[in-house]
Amino acid sequence: MLLTPMAAAAADGDASALVPSGSGPVPFKDIDDGTVPADEHTPRDKDLSSDLVAALPRRQDPIAELLLYQGCWLPKYWVPGVIEFQRRFNPRPDDVVLASYPKCGTTWLMALAFAAAARHAYPPAAAGEHPLRWLHPHDVVPFIDEVFARGEEAKLDALPSPRLMSTHLPFTLLPPRVTAGGGCKVVYVCRDPKDMVVSLWHFLRRSCKPPSKPEDLSFDELFDAVCDGTSALGPAWDHVLSYWRAAVARPDRVLFLRYEDLQRDTGESVRRLAEFMGRPFSAAEEAAGAVAAVVELCSFGNMKVLEVNKNKVDSVASGNLAIPRDAFFRKGVAGDWANHMTLEMAARMDGIFREKLLGTGFSFA
């Protein structure tokens, strides 16, 4: 396996390679090499029995027990990490947090953001040498609340600036240091909820640990939970509105993207993303095909066939889920909902979201 410059320096005993230096972003996997000590504080174990968590409303869905925390249904095992993230995260001004509701383009956004932001250190067109050719995007960009849940803040602190991090939390659950306006930048991607629920259903059926039985997850049950606002991370309309309103209020701090626009014109979306992150493409880069190189590297067709991403044995750990790496690359299309739900179901979901979004200035139409 090829090592990135930072990982190679660390392997050679250069401790300065793990000190934030403005040379980022670098893959999170490079930091997670066993040399950075884990925090003895283990919030997932400690806080599950706390009075705060014990008092939260709860419900059981087919995959996990959910707790209603600050207006959002969270898997029980997420809550301690979220609490610690809210309490202890110290953003840097050039941090970029990539946010989404599950199965709305998370993995694609991770890849595009990293490829665009790190293109000078890791040229996208370099054959075989780019981290995204041998690391899964989730090994490159960490889920920040998971980092806090595992007590691995030292690894986050060791990342050089600018740091890329990801979250599925709504904007309202991000730490005040982020949402107050001066903390860091946030990029959000949304998707037609009909396609989201189809993708989520396929994903969950492949990502459960015993005693959960993924084959028992009914599409109708998940569909109803999304429509009722009781699915994990729901209500889904509140999730998208939290970022929409933030983007309207602070377009310099929050970039709002649509999955369908990413598909329709990936190059233009990459330009917007790079400019927002403070890494705009120069005229010379445009002429040299740098945007096209990012698009090609991160295309669904390319990412799906890479060995690291089509592995069905190795998994990406997330809380109580063990997710086969190829589960993140199923179809990557818009409109697949038509193969899974009736027109009546589609009309019901469209109607619910239309009503919930009425008067907000945002719609999925």
TrEMBL record:
Where is the segment annotated Disordered?
A: 29-49
Q: Which Pfam families match?
A: Sulfotransfer_1
The alphabetical list of record keywords is: Transferase
> Which residues fall in a coiled-coil region?
none
- Which Enzyme Commission number(s) are on file for it? 2.8.2.-
For this UniProt entry, the molecular function terms from Gene Ontology, in alphabetical order, are:
transferase activity
Q: What class of enzyme is it?
A: transferase
Question: Compositional bias (Basic and acidic residues) at which positions?
Answer: 38-49
Query: Which PANTHER family does the protein's record reference?
Result: SULFOTRANSFERASE SULT (PTHR11783)
Its name, as the record gives it, is Sulfotransferase
From which organism does this entry originate? Urochloa decumbens
